[in-house]
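Consider a protein example.
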Amino acid sequence: MKGNRSSMGLKTFVAWFLLVVIAGCASHDDHHHHEEQTLRPPANADSVAAQAVLEGNRLFADHQWTAAIKQYKKAVQAQPSLAEAHYNLALTLDQQGRFSESRPHYMKAAELAPGNKVIWNAPPFRQYGTVESDFQEEAPAPGGHSH
């Protein structure tokens, strides 16, 4: 059976996502928690990206959403692989009600940090539904009919 790497990577990502969502759904009920906590940059982060994340976090704490978004975007540009920058950017976009813009950053953060429970269990992640429910809509039930 031939498969390309992006297909295999997506299948692995979906499997991890399902495991974490199922575990996370059992432990959280608050879908409207508006004071989410931002993440600090890891010790091995690029210095420009780390400084931008820290400044973004300060601005986020002061509810200066537009300025925080600029800092997190600066961090993402400096180090696109920094999951914490994507996550914090997504949180801040959510604060402004820009959910369609935040979703790709939540997904990227989760892809970059598969073991990070804060990212994977964040209430904003669940407001988009689960991969399981999206998958069920696309695939008909075994032996059944699609309605």
